[in-house]
Amino acid sequence: MQTINLGGLRVSRLCFGTEPLAIKKGPDGKQTQGDKTPVEGGEILAEALRLGVYMWDTSDDYGTHPHVREALKRVKRSSVVVADKSNAATYVAGVNAVEFALNDLGTEYIDIMFLHIVPPRPIQRKDANDRFYVSQDLKGRKGALEAYMEARDSGRIKKIALSTHSTDTLRQVLDYQEIDIVCAPLNKLGTYLDDGTQEERLNAFKALHDSGKGVYVIKTLAAGRYRDDADACIRYVLGFHDFIDVWNIGMYDVGEVKRNIALFSDALGK
User: Are 170 and 204 in contact (CB under 8 A)?
Assistant: First the structure.
């Protein structure tokens, strides 16, 4: 498994997206997965580390904090990079989000803490559990960003990141030196684009990468909807390896980890 510098952290280029451990995924009408217990998930993540995948992605609304917590009991903490996310907007909510992440994951620090799904302007969204909330834009997340910066200064988090489905928001991040890493959807069919075209999304990634920020992508399989065409979808996004550092791919078991490692090795080399 290749490794790379992501915003100042050395990570595996394949990131273990943990959603399928606790959330049903797959093509519309035949969704499966989502039934791993925390102990089972912990064992899978620990095995992924042994296979070379040591970046793990979770969120406070995925239901996979318990799985990551179990995994962290099985490995040396410094051997993995954990990315967590929160929809927190205010300063107080940001402080609480960091505290919750540390306690819920059972760790003394979070490697990457995200401002999660930031739109270009405030909108109502549903979280991973279909609960409505108002997702604030970058200006509306100023308080949470301040809390994250304080946590970074104290060592409670290492890097600050932002995730979004909006190309407009990606462009805005260029003006925020405080944000180390960005993450947004990219897939073969151009879904999960809140605005702009696929070409504009790719150009935004290039600009962010050129500015020195770490770039990683999500929704390669469109939340599992393209799972039946997984290899072709993954090969498509790997084609942009010059300016994309990491690919977050949701995985359900060790077999999927091994298949993706083989695909990465074939497409990117060792």
Answer: yes
- What DSSP element (H or E) covers 142? helix 142-154
The torsion angles phi and psi of 268, rounded to 5 degrees, stand at: -110, -20
Residue pair 67/38 in contact (Cβ under 8 Å)? The answer is yes
Looking at domain 3-268, its CATH architecture is Alpha-Beta Barrel (3.20)
Q: What confidence score (pLDDT) does residue 227 get?
A: 86
SS3 233: helix
Residues 6+ apart with CB under 8 A from 90: 143, 144
Here the tokens at position 226 are 């393209």
- For 15, phi then psi, to 5°, come to -105, 135
- C-beta atoms surrounding 129 within 10 Å: 10
What's the CA gap between 148 and 201, in Å, rounded?
A: 26
One-letter amino acid at 30 equals K
pTM over 0.90: yes
Cα–Cα dist 222/95, whole Å: 31
Q: Which of 83, 208, 98 is nearest to 143 (CA)?
A: 98
How many C-beta neighbours within 10 Å does residue 16 have? 28
pLDDT at 130: 78
Residue 264: partners with Cβ closer than 8 Å, 6 or more residues away: 1, 2, 13, 14, 238
How many Å apart are CA 74 and CA 52, to the nearest integer?
Answer: 15
Strand 55-57 and strand 14-17: the pairing is: parallel
Q: How confident is the model at residue 32 (pLDDT cuts 50, 70, 90)?
A: confident
Question: What is the C-alpha separation between 154 and 145, in angstroms, rounded?
Answer: 14
Tokens 């300063």: give the residue.
91
Contact 33, 25 (CB under 8 A): yes
